[in-house]
From TrEMBL:
Protein's name according to its UniProt entry: 21381_t:CDS:1
PANTHER family recorded: 39S RIBOSOMAL PROTEIN L28, MITOCHONDRIAL, LARGE RIBOSOMAL SUBUNIT PROTEIN BL28M
Pfam families: Ribosomal_L28 (PF00830)
Annotated family: Belongs to the bacterial ribosomal protein bL28 family.
Gene source species: Gigaspora margarita
Cited InterPro entries: Ribosomal_bL28, Ribosomal_bL28/bL31-like_sf, Ribosomal_bL28_sf
Keyword annotations from UniProtKB, A to Z: Ribonucleoprotein, Ribosomal protein
Length: 146
């Protein structure tokens, strides 16, 4: 018998006892008894989930940005609206330029892809080397496995 039916039958038996529906000390209705269920195995401890930021708050860098200095610029998305109000999706890609920049540490010019914003920041900092030293490790990208 299913465990919930056993509980239901036990509840009815108790009601019969309270109401005096026993005839000469035996139950009016007999319910089959079954063996008690074995204890369930212990549950594994719960692992707390790390709360992630919603995807609209996190701007992920796209693969092309890993090949140059983009200064945080990303592909942007929006609607192109015609004269008649028709909307169609479009993208705005960053303005990427191929430039040769001089590195004082290497004493050589390095061909690299950059955005105009990155060039402007490099001018403020005082060159490519000082710009790279001022960047956070997270912004420099993941290290290349050896």
């Amino acid at each position: 018998m299913h465990p919930t039916l056993q509980l239901f039958a036990k509840k009815i038996r108790e009601q019969h006892v309270k109401r005096g529906l026993f005839a000469s000390g035996r139950l009016k209705y007999l319910y089959p008894k079954s063996d008690p269920l074995p204890d369930p195995p212990p549950k594994p401890p719960k692992i707390k989930k790390v709360k992630k930021e919603p995807p609209w708050m996190v701007q992920q860098t796209y693969k092309q940005a890993l090949t140059g200095l983009y200064a945080g610029k990303h592909i942007q998305y929006g609607n192109q609206i015609s004269e008649f109000g028709n909307k169609s999706r479009r993208t705005w890609r960053p303005n990427v330029q191929k430039v040769k920049l001089y590195s004082e540490a290497l004493n050589d010019k390095i061909p690299i892809k950059v955005t105009p914003l990155a060039l402007k920041i490099m001018d403020r900092k005082g060159g490519l080397d000082k710009y790279l030293l001022s960047m956070r490790d997270k912004d420099l990208g993941e290290p290349i496995p050896e």
